[in-house]
Amino acid sequence: IIAFSNKNDFATRLLSSTPFVWTGLISYSLYLWHYPIFAFVRIKYGELSTGSIIAALLLTVALSIVSFLWVERPFRDRLKVKSTVFAPLIVGIFFVLVAAYAVTLNRASGLLVDEQNVAGQSTESRPGEGVEVDGCIPDRERCGRSNGALKKIIVLGDSHAEILQAPAKDMARRYRLQYLSGALGNCPYVDVEHIRYDERCDAHRKRVIDMMVNQPPSIILYAEHWLKYTTNSTSAHPDGPVETFGEETLREAYVRTIDQLLADGHVLVAVYPGVEPNEHVPQQVKRLTDSVAQDEREDFLADLELTVDYKKQRLRAGQWRAMLDDLAFAPGFLTVDPTEIFCDPGAGHCRLNDGPTLFFVDGNHYSPDGVALIMRDAEEKLLSREHLQMDAQSEPSAIVMPQRN
Predict the structure, then answer these.
(1) How far apart are CA 375 and CA 399, in angstroms?
(2) The pTM is what?
(3) CA distances from 369 to 72, 225, 311 (A)
(4) What gap in Å lies between CA 144 and CA 137, rounded to an integer?
(5) Is 222 helix (H, G, I), strand (E, B) or coil?
(6) Which of 58, 227, 229, 259 has the fewest Cβ atoms surrounding its Cβ within 10 A?
(7) Tens of pLDDT along 280-326?
(8) Sequence-ordered strand ranges (E) for 236-362
(9) Using CB atoms within 10 A of its CB, is residue 156 exposed (0-12), middle (13-18) or buried (19+)?
């Protein structure tokens, strides 16, 4: 480049322009900042949307400029930086980075760590079981007395399981069971060779699979973004295909994984592929309400009815529904079908809201209100099969299922 460059060439003028020069100056800061920022965004929000990527890039550039001007450039001037200040500062920064990295690993593992457990007692973990949040202490309280056998409520799956964690933890508290989660966004719970949707997934998934070997018979809440894993071809998922063992199909891997959980004595509640509007529902509502006069918006939201086609929702995940249907008669296997909660087959549509109450936070994840309805259905089915039992100290759910119009 240097040998053939000429100051009058377009390439030379372009690379000598202020934006390119500044990019070069802050390039090392960009390199240092981009990884932690994108890592924390993934930990906080799971799958990266276009908006979150742009926001992370802008934050990376801003912090890179700040650190270049007030950290990197001043430290290059030996006359301005005394060694008595420099050495302690570097040591301090090192320990801060080590502590931050430890916290990141702890959170990124996907296994919940809570200083206060669901019964208000100290958190207890046991060798070989990973990190758990216990609902009671075996030596002092009645663990799992609600059914005499099932000891825990365990959440497994990807980001569609992560959204179940808070109500699952509440259920564990109300029925005095222990609680554990191995859910992680972009990381389905299935025994395969590799999953490359997220750099953390393989290590986390194998850790959770190993951890489940030592778990006593428990209630497992199992949810996945099934449509995302419809195929393991690189053409369908260029950012990270699923690689199964040998000639096994992904569906066969899921069946084998579920069969193993059932063989270990667990009761598994699988959430069927549900309603996926694909459009960001809150943004859709905002766009609609922005076109309405301010004094009319309350009435407009009360009457608003957003829907998607029922048949399309049922058909789009047909192979996964068929797989779960084939397992429906297995002992200990229960299902929750969101299309039975949010859809009206007679009317031919599925609801995305109930007036101002939205059932989705984006194009495929349920809102806390939507999750509450799914968990209410799961709880009712567990009670009907006597996998959960009410006693004097149990607290029933306060969620009321909506009536179809």
Answers:
(1) 9
(2) 0.64
(3) 48, 19, 24
(4) 11
(5) strand
(6) 58
(7) 999 999 999 999 999 999 999 999 999 999 999 888 888 888 999 99
(8) 242-243, 267-271, 307-309, 333-336, 343-344, 349-351, 353-354, 357-358
(9) buried
